[in-house]
Each structure stands twice: as structure tokens, then as C-alpha cells.
Amino acid sequence: NAGVTQTPKFQVLKTGQSMTLQCAQDMNHEYMSWYRQDPGMGLRLIHYSVGAGITDQGEVPNGYNVSRSTTEDFPLRLLSAAPSQTSVYFCASGYSVGELFFGEGSRLTVL
Amino acid sequence: SQELEQSPQSLIVQEGKNLTINCTSSKTLYGLYWYKQKYGEGLIFLMMLQKGGEEKSHEKITAKLDEKKQQSSLHITASQPSHAGIYLCGANPIETDSNYQLIWGAGTKLIIKP
Description:
The complex is a heterodimer of chains A (111) and B (114). Chain A is mainly beta and 111 residues long. Helices cover 0% and strands 52% of the residues of chain A. In chain A, the strands form two sheets. In chain A, strands 2, 4, 5, 6, 9, 10 and 11 form a seven-stranded mixed β-sheet that branches. In chain A, strands 1-3-8-7 form a four-stranded antiparallel β-sheet, with no helix packed on it. Chain B is mostly beta strands and 114 residues long. Chain B starts with a strand and ends with a strand. Chains A and B meet through β5 and β10 of A and β4, β5 and β9 of B.
């Protein structure tokens, strides 16, 4: 029973590098989302998707791209990493926007 | 800006004692969701409240939503070490640009002293 799987769990990047955080779910959820969690700031929505081929911006989309070619996968791309993108990233999916299943998180450090 | 205010920010409670965490919004909410996060892990869904005055319980955790649907409380009875973690509230306000975006509180860190 995999649920929501995020990879990698840890990543260190240099400023300007690009990378992709992978997210996959096996629950056939239409709704998927990416959040970043920073100390004292709670969760902030980066991008979300309500189904394959449909994505939209959240609260803090700048510097990130997403795509949703299948129901299962929702990768998050960092185009040119900046130190301000040092954070813990969570992928979440659900049948509705409020009852979400979260991945275990990806800790990203940008030097 | 934090549209959902959680209080307290942190809480240290003796094992066996009761505690309450609050989540307050300046806007009327369509739905209010409570999650728990263990240190270094993802969030786990606890409860959803949608109706004014609604109250739900799961094991020793009870959550309530006030009649105006702007404030919720999470009450833990006879706390145990397994209750330790960070509790977050999330919500979707009735007046919102998108029905698909939740707003979140900053979280309440709960420590249980044995």
C-alpha cells in the first residue's frame, strides 16, 4: 500500500542548477498538489492539479514548473535553484481538496 | 500573511493532562481540516469539520467548529506520548479565488512530558 511516494528524500543543489522532485500516487486521486513548508510559515501551495492535463498556480509558483501527463504522476521542476528555495517540499493527493494524503517530504538545500 | 492563526505556537504538557489547540480565521470557512505531523514526516489527516457547531471525535481527540465557522478547537484528553507532534489546521474560506486552494495555520508543536 504505497500511497504517495516522493523522491528524492534529500537533495543538495548549487545555485542555478535545475532538478525535478518526483511524486507518484496509487490511489487514483484526481487532485494533486505541491507544498513547501518553512519554519513558522506553515504550508504554502506551489502548484496543484485537478486531473491529467490540468494544472494551476498556487500561492508561491515562481521558480517552479509542473506537469500532469498521467493521473498517477505530478513532478515538480525547479528551473534555476536559488537559496530561497531551500525548504521541505510535500506532495499531496486526494479525492477532495481538504482530505489529503501527504508524501513523506523532500528536503532540499540550495547552496 | 497568515490567514489562519493557530495558538499556542507550542505546548508542553504532562502526560495524562488535557490540552486544547485553537485555530482562528478572519473569514467564514467552507471547511476546516485538522492534520498531525510527526517530526520529519508528512502530514496525516485527522478530521474535517464543515457545519457550524459541528463536533467530531476520534479516540481521545475532539475537534469543534464554532457556529460562525471561523474558529475551531482541537482538544486532547488524557494526553499520551503518541500525541506528540505538530498539529496544523487547514481551511478553504467561502470567499476565495479558488475552491482548490487551502490556507494553513503555522502549526502547534506539542511535546508530552512523561
